[in-house]
Specification:
There is one protein chain. The protein is mostly helical. It contains eight helices and two strands, in the order αβααβααααα. The chain has two domains: about 100 residues, no CATH class; about 45 residues, no CATH class. The protein has a two-stranded parallel ribbon. The two termini are about 35 Å apart.
Amino acid sequence: MDLQKGERQANVDWSLCEALKTINIGRLPKVLLIYDIMCQYWKKLGQRVFRNEYLELPNILIDKAIGMFHVHGHQDSCLYRYGPMYIANIGMIDGEILETLWAVLNKISQSARTSSLATRAELLDDHMNDSNWKKLVGMGMF
């Protein structure tokens, strides 16, 4: 989802509710949600959803995490509560893959800035897919 500068919790709330509503979670026991400011974001999510007639969270357990890059900038208690490496049954994940692409995507920012919404989405998708392809092809070397 495109967020305006200074992302608002209302936009993230809507994105989360829509994603959980539209993806096929079937009989999954729980979902893992990784967000840079999870320790603050999660505190009043239930109240915000309850007060908004357009939002609804499905009845599913949500494991909450902060990506490994960001969790080290939080309080020590956040590391053990929200660090992915301390959450049972999620494996090894850093949760920050988009952060690593920013330097590469900055090269196309001039083109993306003046593009329409659809063109910008395609432009970003193409560059991220190219990055994924290069990683996939390069894995054999290591």
